[in-house]
Design brief:
The complex is a heterodimer of chains A (197) and B (143). Chain A is α+β, with helices and mostly antiparallel strands and 197 residues long. Chain A has helices spanning 2-18, 71-83, 108-120, 138-158; strands spanning 21-26, 35-40, 45-49, 54-58, 64-68, 90-95, 126-130, 166-170, 191-196. In chain A, strand 7, helix 4 (138-158) and strand 8 form a beta-alpha-beta unit. Residues 9-17 of chain A have low confidence and may be disordered. Chain B is globular, with a radius of gyration of 17 Å. Classes of the chains: A alpha+beta (197), B alpha+beta (143). At the A-B interface, strand 1, strand 2 and helix 2 of A face strand 1, strand 6, strand 7, strand 9 and strand 11 of B.
């Protein structure tokens, strides 16, 4: 046991003696993999990691050597670091009655889900962005979208969310969910988009 | 009338500054973990905001994790020093620039909308190299 520990320590010392840096590519949350390109300080591409569990070890003076590692080895070395990555942000859309800050009845359960998600998360913060359709003047819609966002914030705070964790802004009719011409009534554009991080 | 206009303008200016400043929030922190900002030390705790140019620092028993406004996520291990050198993000187009430096320690990254929108728009600098991030999850360790 002690011997194994000593051997492991020796191994680590040995490895740290010859490599200064290590980059390990992991699979994405979706299972597929992206890539990481490694450039020298001078900007020359030295290596490309594009398969999960490939790694690059970079010596103190630069120069990357690419090799294979495994899920088990990565878990042993970096299990806690990976587990501590925050969960993916989650999006919600709430819909409103024409020209008002009144939630559509079918959006009520979504508001409950959103509140549950935000309260569950450690340090969970909430971004609330209000939108309108293209009916009416742009200035009026700016105010309406802002009022919708503030109403959602009010509802969340009323149900116990810390106001310091909620940011609410209005985007008027600038970001349509469903593209339309001007002066077009569209239910799906009369919305508030919420991201819980 | 003029007074209302001035107040509205000031309120808008405040909001704009605030919106520009916050680039992320601490989600977890434990042990010796703090944020260096303009010479001051701020204890890292869940909900604390992170700004561009902050330096994230952990001691021997410290760690912290952060979610950024483009949905990028960091987990920082013990004995680390991570600099947030540049963060620009357009929440409508998802265009942006995100440059981080790992001076020492360990960092796990899940890239977000900035890296998804343009390859290499997210970069991580280490003492020897520059990493171009192309929509992925990875780990960096600097001895």
């Amino acid at each position: 046991m002690l011997k194994a520990a000593l051997a492991a320590t020796g191994m680590i010392l040995l490895l740290s003696g010859c490599t200064a840096e290590r980059v390990v590519l992991l699979p994405n949350e979706s299972g597929e993999s992206g890539s990481v390109a490694i450039f020298s300080a001078a900007g020359e591409e030295e290596a490309l990691l594009d398969r999960p569990y490939t790694e690059a070890r970079i010596a103190q003076g630069g120069g990357a050597s690419v090799g294979e590692t495994s899920a088990e080895a990565v878990d042993a070395a970096y299990g806690t670091l990976i587990e501590d990555l925050p969960p993916p942000p989650r999006s919600f859309i709430l819909y409103f009655k024409v020209g008002t800050t009144t939630l559509m009845p079918e959006s009520e359960p979504e508001l409950d889900r959103l509140l549950a998600e935000a309260s569950e998360r450690l340090g969970g913060d909430v971004q609330v962005v209000g939108h309108t359709d293209t009916v009416g003047a742009k200035e009026t819609n700016d105010k309406l979208s802002e009022a919708r966002a503030q109403e959602v914030k009010r509802l969340l705070v009323e149900r116990g969310l810390d106001p310091a964790l909620v940011r609410a802004v209005g985007r008027g009719e600038r970001e349509l969910l469903v593209p339309t011409g001007d002066e077009v009534a569209e239910t799906r554009n009369r919305r508030v988009e919420v991201v819980v991080r | 009338m003029l007074r209302t206009a001035i107040i509205t303008f000031l309120a808008a200016a405040c909001l704009a500054t605030q919106a520009n400043a916050e680039i992320g929030r601490v989600k977890r922190a434990s042990g010796d973990a703090f944020i260096e900002r303009a010479g001051a030390r701020i204890d890292a705790a869940p909900g604390v905001t992170v700004d561009a140019n902050d330096v994230l620092v952990t001691g021997a028993d410290g760690k912290m994790s952060i979610t950024f406004i483009d949905n990028s996520r960091f987990s920082i291990g013990p004995e680390s020093r991570v600099t947030l050198d540049r963060f620009e993000f357009n929440s409508t187009t998802h265009e942006g620039d995100f440059e981080t430096g790992v001076e020492k320690g360990s960092l796990a990254v899940i890239s977000g909308q900035i890296a998804k929108e343009a390859p290499d728009a997210m970069k991580v600098r280490t003492p020897t190299s520059i990493l171009g991030v192309r929509g992925t999850r990875f780990i960096i360790e600097v001895d």
